[in-house]
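FAQ

Q: What does a record look like?
A: Structure on top, sequence underneath. For example:
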Protein backbone atom coordinates (compact mmCIF):
# COMPACT_ATOMS: atom_id res chain seq x y z
CA UNK A 1 0.00 0.00 0.00
CA UNK A 2 1.30 3.46 -0.94
CA UNK A 3 0.31 7.04 -0.22
CA UNK A 4 -0.93 8.57 -3.47
CA UNK A 5 -2.22 11.99 -2.39
CA UNK A 6 -2.29 14.45 0.52
CA UNK A 7 -5.41 16.60 0.57
CA UNK A 8 -6.21 19.57 2.81
CA UNK A 9 -9.75 20.79 3.50
CA UNK A 10 -10.89 24.05 5.06
CA UNK A 11 -14.49 25.17 5.38
CA UNK A 12 -14.96 28.97 5.51
CA UNK A 13 -17.45 28.71 8.38
CA UNK A 14 -14.73 26.98 10.45
CA UNK A 15 -11.56 28.91 9.58
CA UNK A 16 -9.55 27.69 12.61
CA UNK A 17 -9.72 24.07 11.45
CA UNK A 18 -7.57 22.40 8.81
CA UNK A 19 -8.49 18.83 7.91
CA UNK A 20 -6.23 16.40 6.06
CA UNK A 21 -7.09 13.35 4.01
CA UNK A 22 -4.34 10.87 3.13
CA UNK A 23 -5.24 8.78 0.07
CA UNK A 24 -3.76 5.37 -0.78
CA UNK A 25 -3.62 3.10 -3.82
CA UNK A 26 -5.69 0.56 -1.82
CA UNK A 27 -8.62 2.99 -1.76
CA UNK A 28 -8.32 3.50 2.01
CA UNK A 29 -8.47 7.17 3.02
CA UNK A 30 -7.43 8.39 6.47
CA UNK A 31 -8.55 11.62 8.13
CA UNK A 32 -6.48 14.00 10.27
CA UNK A 33 -6.89 17.50 11.66
CA UNK A 34 -5.02 20.38 13.17
CA UNK A 35 -6.10 23.77 14.45
CA UNK A 36 -5.08 27.46 14.44
CA UNK A 37 -2.65 29.37 12.19
CA UNK A 38 -4.00 27.47 9.22
CA UNK A 39 -2.20 29.39 6.46
CA UNK A 40 1.24 28.41 7.70
CA UNK A 41 0.19 24.83 8.40
CA UNK A 42 -1.25 24.40 4.92
CA UNK A 43 2.00 25.65 3.42
CA UNK A 44 4.04 23.26 5.53
CA UNK A 45 1.74 20.36 4.70
CA UNK A 46 1.94 20.72 0.93
CA UNK A 47 5.37 22.31 0.62
CA UNK A 48 7.35 20.25 3.12
CA UNK A 49 5.51 17.20 4.47
CA UNK A 50 3.77 15.91 1.33
CA UNK A 51 6.95 15.48 -0.78
CA UNK A 52 8.44 13.35 2.00
CA UNK A 53 5.48 10.99 2.49
CA UNK A 54 4.01 10.58 -1.00
CA UNK A 55 4.78 7.12 -2.35
CA UNK A 56 5.55 5.72 1.11
CA UNK A 57 3.73 2.89 2.91
CA UNK A 58 1.17 4.53 5.26
CA UNK A 59 1.38 1.58 7.67
CA UNK A 60 4.96 2.50 8.58
CA UNK A 61 3.74 5.23 10.91
CA UNK A 62 6.73 5.33 13.24
CA UNK A 63 9.31 5.23 10.47
CA UNK A 64 7.58 7.91 8.44
CA UNK A 65 7.02 10.17 11.46
CA UNK A 66 10.65 9.99 12.51
CA UNK A 67 11.93 10.47 8.97
CA UNK A 68 9.88 13.63 8.54
CA UNK A 69 10.75 14.96 11.99
CA UNK A 70 14.47 14.36 11.44
CA UNK A 71 14.29 16.49 8.31
CA UNK A 72 12.29 19.20 10.06
CA UNK A 73 14.87 19.40 12.82
CA UNK A 74 17.31 21.08 10.47
CA UNK A 75 15.45 24.35 11.04
CA UNK A 76 13.49 23.69 14.23
CA UNK A 77 10.60 21.27 14.31
CA UNK A 78 7.87 23.16 16.22
CA UNK A 79 5.14 25.33 14.77
CA UNK A 80 3.46 24.89 11.40
CA UNK A 81 5.59 21.92 10.37
CA UNK A 82 4.77 19.96 13.53
CA UNK A 83 1.07 20.81 13.27
CA UNK A 84 1.06 19.53 9.70
CA UNK A 85 2.96 16.38 10.67
CA UNK A 86 0.53 15.80 13.55
CA UNK A 87 -2.44 15.90 11.17
CA UNK A 88 -0.79 13.47 8.75
CA UNK A 89 0.23 11.10 11.53
CA UNK A 90 -3.35 10.99 12.83
CA UNK A 91 -4.57 10.19 9.32
CA UNK A 92 -2.05 7.35 9.05
CA UNK A 93 -3.41 5.78 12.25
CA UNK A 94 -6.90 6.14 10.80
CA UNK A 95 -5.79 4.34 7.63
CA UNK A 96 -4.38 1.41 9.61
CA UNK A 97 -7.53 1.15 11.71
CA UNK A 98 -9.73 1.19 8.63
CA UNK A 99 -7.47 -1.32 6.85
CA UNK A 100 -7.65 -3.82 9.72
CA UNK A 101 -11.25 -2.87 10.66
CA UNK A 102 -10.55 -2.12 14.33
CA UNK A 103 -11.03 1.01 16.46
CA UNK A 104 -7.96 3.10 16.97
CA UNK A 105 -7.80 2.53 20.72
CA UNK A 106 -7.26 -1.19 20.05
CA UNK A 107 -4.30 -0.38 17.79
CA UNK A 108 -2.81 1.61 20.66
CA UNK A 109 -3.08 -1.42 22.94
CA UNK A 110 -6.64 -1.32 24.18
CA UNK A 111 -8.55 0.58 26.83
CA UNK A 112 -7.72 1.33 30.44
CA UNK A 113 -11.16 2.90 31.00
CA UNK A 114 -14.61 2.71 29.47
CA UNK A 115 -15.53 6.37 30.07
CA UNK A 116 -13.48 9.53 29.51
CA UNK A 117 -13.91 12.38 32.02
CA UNK A 118 -14.42 15.82 30.51
CA UNK A 119 -14.68 19.46 31.43
CA UNK A 120 -16.46 22.06 29.32
CA UNK A 121 -14.44 25.06 28.16
CA UNK A 122 -17.07 27.78 28.12
CA UNK A 123 -16.56 29.44 24.75
CA UNK A 124 -19.24 30.53 22.30
CA UNK A 125 -19.82 29.40 18.75
CA UNK A 126 -22.93 29.56 16.61
CA UNK A 127 -26.07 29.24 18.68
CA UNK A 128 -24.27 28.17 21.87
CA UNK A 129 -23.33 31.29 23.87
CA UNK A 130 -21.60 29.86 26.94
CA UNK A 131 -18.96 32.60 27.04
CA UNK A 132 -21.49 35.43 27.17
CA UNK A 133 -23.37 33.68 29.95
CA UNK A 134 -20.51 33.47 32.43
CA UNK A 135 -18.94 36.73 31.29
CA UNK A 136 -22.10 38.83 31.69
CA UNK A 137 -23.72 37.77 34.92
CA UNK A 138 -25.36 34.44 34.05
CA UNK A 139 -22.77 32.02 35.37
CA UNK A 140 -25.33 30.38 37.68
CA UNK A 141 -27.69 29.67 34.77
CA UNK A 142 -24.76 28.37 32.73
CA UNK A 143 -23.72 25.96 35.47
CA UNK A 144 -27.27 24.63 35.78
CA UNK A 145 -27.50 24.24 32.00
CA UNK A 146 -24.22 22.32 31.86
CA UNK A 147 -25.35 19.98 34.63
CA UNK A 148 -28.55 19.29 32.70
CA UNK A 149 -26.38 18.39 29.69
CA UNK A 150 -24.41 15.85 31.70
CA UNK A 151 -21.36 18.05 32.29
CA UNK A 152 -19.83 18.07 35.78
CA UNK A 153 -16.81 20.33 35.26
CA UNK A 154 -16.34 23.69 33.54
CA UNK A 155 -13.50 26.10 32.75
CA UNK A 156 -13.69 29.90 32.60
CA UNK A 157 -11.13 32.75 32.48
CA UNK A 158 -12.50 35.70 34.49
CA UNK A 159 -9.12 37.31 35.22
CA UNK A 160 -7.97 37.71 31.62
CA UNK A 161 -9.61 41.05 30.89
CA UNK A 162 -7.78 42.68 33.81
CA UNK A 163 -4.38 41.72 32.41
CA UNK A 164 -4.68 44.01 29.43
CA UNK A 165 -4.18 47.37 31.14
CA UNK A 166 -0.93 46.35 32.83
CA UNK A 167 0.13 43.64 30.37
CA UNK A 168 -0.14 41.12 33.16
CA UNK A 169 2.06 42.99 35.61
CA UNK A 170 -0.60 44.06 38.12
CA UNK A 171 -4.17 43.26 39.17
CA UNK A 172 -5.89 45.29 41.88
CA UNK A 173 -8.01 43.96 44.75
CA UNK A 174 -11.12 45.55 43.22
CA UNK A 175 -10.43 43.86 39.89
CA UNK A 176 -10.02 40.53 41.62
CA UNK A 177 -13.37 41.07 43.34
CA UNK A 178 -15.00 41.60 39.96
CA UNK A 179 -13.31 38.51 38.53
CA UNK A 180 -14.60 36.37 41.40
CA UNK A 181 -18.27 37.20 40.68
CA UNK A 182 -18.94 34.32 38.22
CA UNK A 183 -17.12 31.87 40.50
CA UNK A 184 -19.28 32.90 43.45
CA UNK A 185 -22.39 32.66 41.29
CA UNK A 186 -21.55 29.09 40.30
CA UNK A 187 -20.82 28.02 43.87
CA UNK A 188 -23.97 29.70 45.21
CA UNK A 189 -26.13 28.09 42.51
CA UNK A 190 -24.89 24.50 42.37
CA UNK A 191 -22.40 24.16 45.22
CA UNK A 192 -19.89 21.34 44.82
CA UNK A 193 -21.90 19.63 42.07
CA UNK A 194 -19.76 21.52 39.52
CA UNK A 195 -15.97 21.44 39.33
CA UNK A 196 -14.43 24.78 38.28
CA UNK A 197 -11.17 25.19 36.39
CA UNK A 198 -9.58 28.59 35.83
CA UNK A 199 -7.73 29.38 32.61
CA UNK A 200 -5.16 32.19 32.66
CA UNK A 201 -3.80 32.08 29.09
CA UNK A 202 -0.17 32.82 30.15
CA UNK A 203 -1.06 36.38 31.13
CA UNK A 204 0.56 37.00 34.53
CA UNK A 205 3.86 37.37 36.33
CA UNK A 206 4.39 35.16 39.36
CA UNK A 207 3.61 37.85 41.94
CA UNK A 208 0.18 38.54 40.51
CA UNK A 209 -0.50 34.86 39.83
CA UNK A 210 0.11 34.21 43.52
CA UNK A 211 -2.30 37.00 44.45
CA UNK A 212 -4.96 35.54 42.15
CA UNK A 213 -4.52 32.01 43.43
CA UNK A 214 -4.78 33.10 47.07
CA UNK A 215 -8.17 34.62 46.36
CA UNK A 216 -9.34 31.42 44.65
CA UNK A 217 -8.47 29.10 47.51
CA UNK A 218 -11.84 29.35 49.35
CA UNK A 219 -13.73 28.17 46.24
CA UNK A 220 -12.36 24.62 45.91
CA UNK A 221 -10.96 25.21 42.42
CA UNK A 222 -10.06 22.11 40.39
CA UNK A 223 -7.00 23.65 38.70
CA UNK A 224 -5.42 26.87 37.44
CA UNK A 225 -4.13 26.53 33.88
CA UNK A 226 -1.10 28.29 32.40
CA UNK A 227 -0.89 31.36 34.65
CA UNK A 228 2.51 32.23 33.12
CA UNK A 229 4.22 31.67 29.76
CA UNK A 230 5.71 28.18 29.69
CA UNK A 231 9.20 29.55 28.99
CA UNK A 232 9.47 30.52 32.67
CA UNK A 233 9.95 27.03 34.08
CA UNK A 234 11.54 27.99 37.39
CA UNK A 235 9.01 30.71 38.16
CA UNK A 236 6.11 28.37 37.41
CA UNK A 237 7.69 25.70 39.59
CA UNK A 238 7.91 28.18 42.49
CA UNK A 239 4.31 29.18 41.91
CA UNK A 240 3.23 25.52 41.99
CA UNK A 241 5.07 24.96 45.25
CA UNK A 242 3.30 27.90 46.89
CA UNK A 243 -0.17 27.10 45.56
CA UNK A 244 -2.75 24.88 47.21
CA UNK A 245 -4.54 24.69 43.84
CA UNK A 246 -2.95 22.40 41.22
CA UNK A 247 -1.30 24.23 38.32
CA UNK A 248 -1.75 22.80 34.81
CA UNK A 249 0.80 23.33 32.06
CA UNK A 250 1.27 23.48 29.19
CA UNK A 251 -0.38 23.06 25.80
CA UNK A 252 2.56 25.02 24.33
CA UNK A 253 5.07 22.28 25.17
CA UNK A 254 5.83 20.34 22.00
CA UNK A 255 6.91 16.69 21.95
CA UNK A 256 8.53 14.58 24.67
CA UNK A 257 11.76 16.58 24.45
CA UNK A 258 10.19 19.79 25.74
CA UNK A 259 8.11 17.89 28.29
CA UNK A 260 11.15 16.07 29.68
CA UNK A 261 12.67 19.09 31.43
CA UNK A 262 9.25 20.20 32.67
CA UNK A 263 8.78 16.86 34.39
CA UNK A 264 12.34 16.57 35.65
CA UNK A 265 12.02 19.94 37.36
CA UNK A 266 8.52 19.16 38.75
CA UNK A 267 7.19 22.38 37.26
CA UNK A 268 3.48 21.54 37.56
CA UNK A 269 1.63 18.61 39.15
CA UNK A 270 -0.59 18.22 36.05
CA UNK A 271 0.66 18.11 32.46
CA UNK A 272 -1.29 19.26 29.41
CA UNK A 273 -0.74 18.65 25.71
CA UNK A 274 -2.60 18.79 22.42
CA UNK A 275 -2.18 15.84 20.00
CA UNK A 276 -2.92 18.15 17.05
CA UNK A 277 0.07 20.35 17.87
CA UNK A 278 2.67 18.22 19.61
CA UNK A 279 3.31 15.40 17.15
CA UNK A 280 0.16 13.30 16.90
CA UNK A 281 -1.20 10.19 18.55
CA UNK A 282 1.94 8.18 19.18
CA UNK A 283 3.92 11.15 20.46
CA UNK A 284 1.10 12.05 22.86
CA UNK A 285 1.14 8.49 24.14
CA UNK A 286 4.90 8.76 24.71
CA UNK A 287 4.43 12.05 26.55
CA UNK A 288 1.74 10.44 28.71
CA UNK A 289 4.01 7.51 29.52
CA UNK A 290 6.85 9.87 30.42
CA UNK A 291 4.56 11.84 32.71
CA UNK A 292 3.33 8.60 34.27
CA UNK A 293 6.87 7.74 35.37
CA UNK A 294 6.71 10.89 37.54
CA UNK A 295 3.19 10.20 38.79
CA UNK A 296 1.88 13.19 36.83
CA UNK A 297 -1.60 13.04 35.24
CA UNK A 298 -2.34 14.39 31.77
CA UNK A 299 -5.01 16.72 30.41
CA UNK A 300 -5.70 16.47 26.68
CA UNK A 301 -6.24 19.92 25.22
CA UNK A 302 -9.14 19.60 22.78
CA UNK A 303 -10.70 22.75 21.40
CA UNK A 304 -11.00 22.00 17.71
CA UNK A 305 -13.12 19.86 15.41
CA UNK A 306 -14.63 16.36 15.31
CA UNK A 307 -11.43 14.56 14.31
CA UNK A 308 -9.62 16.15 17.24
CA UNK A 309 -12.37 15.02 19.58
CA UNK A 310 -12.22 11.44 18.28
CA UNK A 311 -8.44 11.45 18.72
CA UNK A 312 -8.83 12.62 22.32
CA UNK A 313 -11.42 9.93 22.99
CA UNK A 314 -9.24 7.10 21.73
CA UNK A 315 -6.20 8.39 23.60
CA UNK A 316 -8.28 9.09 26.69
CA UNK A 317 -9.58 5.54 26.68
CA UNK A 318 -6.06 4.15 26.31
CA UNK A 319 -3.61 6.11 28.47
CA UNK A 320 -3.41 5.23 32.15
CA UNK A 321 -2.75 8.63 33.67
CA UNK A 322 -5.55 10.66 32.11
CA UNK A 323 -6.88 13.51 34.28
CA UNK A 324 -9.46 15.10 31.96
CA UNK A 325 -10.17 15.62 28.28
CA UNK A 326 -11.14 19.17 27.45
CA UNK A 327 -14.27 19.64 25.33
CA UNK A 328 -16.71 22.38 24.41
CA UNK A 329 -20.40 21.95 23.75
CA UNK A 330 -20.22 25.13 21.68
CA UNK A 331 -18.24 23.04 19.19
CA UNK A 332 -19.67 19.54 19.37
CA UNK A 333 -23.23 20.89 19.25
CA UNK A 334 -22.67 23.20 16.27
CA UNK A 335 -19.80 21.83 14.18
CA UNK A 336 -19.13 18.12 14.51
CA UNK A 337 -22.28 16.69 12.95
CA UNK A 338 -22.41 19.42 10.33
CA UNK A 339 -19.07 18.31 8.89
CA UNK A 340 -19.07 14.63 9.86
CA UNK A 341 -21.31 11.75 10.95
CA UNK A 342 -19.91 12.00 14.50
CA UNK A 343 -22.12 13.61 17.18
CA UNK A 344 -20.73 12.85 20.66
CA UNK A 345 -22.60 13.86 23.81
CA UNK A 346 -21.44 13.55 27.42
CA UNK A 347 -23.35 11.67 30.08
CA UNK A 348 -22.83 12.28 33.80
CA UNK A 349 -19.47 13.96 33.14
CA UNK A 350 -18.08 11.38 30.69
CA UNK A 351 -17.75 10.60 27.00
CA UNK A 352 -17.26 7.18 25.43
CA UNK A 353 -14.85 6.51 22.54
CA UNK A 354 -16.17 5.82 19.03
CA UNK A 355 -16.00 2.20 17.94
CA UNK A 356 -14.16 2.71 14.67
CA UNK A 357 -12.95 1.42 12.39
CA UNK A 358 -9.99 3.71 12.85
CA UNK A 359 -11.10 6.99 14.34
CA UNK A 360 -14.72 6.10 13.68
CA UNK A 361 -16.01 9.05 11.64
CA UNK A 362 -16.32 10.27 8.07
CA UNK A 363 -17.07 13.58 6.39
CA UNK A 364 -20.63 14.12 5.25
CA UNK A 365 -21.00 14.02 1.45
CA UNK A 366 -22.84 17.35 1.52
CA UNK A 367 -19.94 18.95 3.42
CA UNK A 368 -17.46 17.68 0.82
CA UNK A 369 -19.73 19.05 -1.90
CA UNK A 370 -19.79 22.55 -0.40
CA UNK A 371 -18.81 24.92 -3.24
CA UNK A 372 -17.01 27.17 -0.76
CA UNK A 373 -14.77 24.39 0.55
CA UNK A 374 -11.10 25.24 0.08
CA UNK A 375 -9.36 22.11 -1.15
CA UNK A 376 -5.70 21.60 -2.06
CA UNK A 377 -4.13 18.33 -3.21
CA UNK A 378 -0.52 17.17 -3.45
CA UNK A 379 -0.06 13.96 -5.40
CA UNK A 380 2.50 11.97 -7.33
CA UNK A 381 5.46 9.74 -6.54
CA UNK A 382 7.02 11.97 -3.91
CA UNK A 383 10.69 12.89 -3.64
CA UNK A 384 11.92 10.61 -0.89
CA UNK A 385 10.44 7.21 -1.72
CA UNK A 386 12.03 4.45 0.31
CA UNK A 387 14.37 6.81 2.16
CA UNK A 388 14.75 6.81 5.92
CA UNK A 389 18.16 8.39 6.64
CA UNK A 390 18.05 11.84 8.16
CA UNK A 391 18.27 14.49 5.48
CA UNK A 392 19.38 12.22 2.67
CA UNK A 393 16.58 13.41 0.41
CA UNK A 394 18.42 16.72 0.08
CA UNK A 395 20.93 14.89 -2.11
CA UNK A 396 18.29 14.82 -4.84
CA UNK A 397 19.08 17.48 -7.43
CA UNK A 398 15.40 18.11 -8.25
CA UNK A 399 14.48 19.40 -4.79
CA UNK A 400 17.45 21.60 -4.01
Amino acid sequence: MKITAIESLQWPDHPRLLFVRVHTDAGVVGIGETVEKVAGTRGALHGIIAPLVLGQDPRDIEGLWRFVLDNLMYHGYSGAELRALSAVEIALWDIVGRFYQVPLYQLLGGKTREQIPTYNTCISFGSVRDYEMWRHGEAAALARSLLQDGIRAMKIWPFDTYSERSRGQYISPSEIEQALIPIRQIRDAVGSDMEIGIECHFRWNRAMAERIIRTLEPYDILFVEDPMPAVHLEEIRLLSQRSSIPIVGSETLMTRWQVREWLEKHVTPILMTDPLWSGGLAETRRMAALADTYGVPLVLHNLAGPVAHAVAMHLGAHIHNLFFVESSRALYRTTYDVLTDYAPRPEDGFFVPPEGPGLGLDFRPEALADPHLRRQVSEGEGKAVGRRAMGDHWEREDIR
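Q: Is there anything notable about this one?
A: Residues 231 and 253 are 9 Å apart (CA to CA).
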